[in-house]
Amino acid sequence: MTDSDIPPEERAGFEEFAAKVDGTNISSQTLLATDYLNHFNEIVMLLDMVPDMPDMIEECKFWQPKSYPEHFADSSFKDKLLAIEAYERVPTKFRRPFEETLNQLNTLILGGVNKLEEEIVAGADPGLVTEHVKAISRAAQALMDCANAIIHGSDRAMAQLEIDGLLG
User: Fold this and answer.
1) Which domain holds residue 105?
2) pTM for this model (two decimals)
């Protein structure tokens, strides 16, 4: 991204933090860090256990969305304070699709956990539960891939139609 891609009102803060994050695991192109995606990787790993261990749905229910700053405040990420500070300077070009993608991920996961719990409690066919877990995991991975691309400089979120297509 060139300086001309950043609106003048965002440019000074972005440039200051782009220099500060140089040499860290925070992208100097977007001021975002992939470590945030660990919050979603954890729940996807738990969901993937549900077909073999249906009681894992109880663990899944404890998962809650966390904002980017909340995740880093609770993490052991070496540059967590810098990540939190830099987030305020992420150019709108990246922040808007990133937050849209995170909202889609949170909605997918919370809705998926609720649906799976209902199916398990109702004694649904284990094969159906397995298929739903696979669909949720596939869609979550696609959204995490999208978020990862944004962290590395893409400015495109997934359309709801694309997500719906993954779910099946």
Assistant:
1) 3-167
2) 0.88
